[in-house]
Amino acid sequence: MTVSELAKRTGVTADTIRHYVRTGLLEPKRDPNNGYKRFSATDEHRLNFIIQAKSLGFSLPDIQTIFDQAGHGESPCPQVREIMTQRMQEVADKLAQMQQTYDTMQKTMKRWETQPNCIPTGDHICHLIEGFSEEGCCHE
């Protein structure tokens, strides 16, 4: 099948497939008659695997590692568990950071509700933001 046919079947763009070919995640054969890349059922299976793995937080290098291990007859499952544990911690850290930012935003917005609007001067752009950084607000 062609890149456009594979794209339609899997719901990804042809450019995404071409990127996976350039990075070596997909290795289509060349049609001897016209030189076009032809994708097989195996390529479609690998692409579906890539899509699933990415949806679980695996990076393209992670996926390449998994393919390499499987290609050498080794079970990639221990590595998959290890990578997933790392990704879960990364996401938990990002969530905690985002929650802290959101909490700060809420406290700041509550304080700003009672402050007047000001006109910019040559020295000030927006006193709300400038006052926030000067006062170190909301780190209670």
Automatic annotation (TrEMBL):
Pfam families: MerR_1 (PF13411). It comes from the Bacteria. SUPFAM superfamilies: Putative DNA-binding domain. InterPro entries: DNA-bd_dom_put_sf, MerR-type_HTH_dom, MerR_fam. Keywords: Coiled coil, DNA-binding, Transcription, Transcription regulation. The keyword Transcription regulation applies. The keyword Flavoprotein does not apply. Residues 1-69 form the HTH merR-type domain. SMART domains: HTH_MERR. Residues 81-115 form a coiled coil. PANTHER family: HEAVY METAL-DEPENDENT TRANSCRIPTIONAL REGULATOR HI_0293-RELATED (PTHR30204:SF94), REDOX-CYCLING DRUG-SENSING TRANSCRIPTIONAL ACTIVATOR SOXR (PTHR30204). This is HTH merR-type domain-containing protein. The lineage of its organism: Bacteria, Pseudomonadati, Pseudomonadota, Gammaproteobacteria, Oceanospirillales.
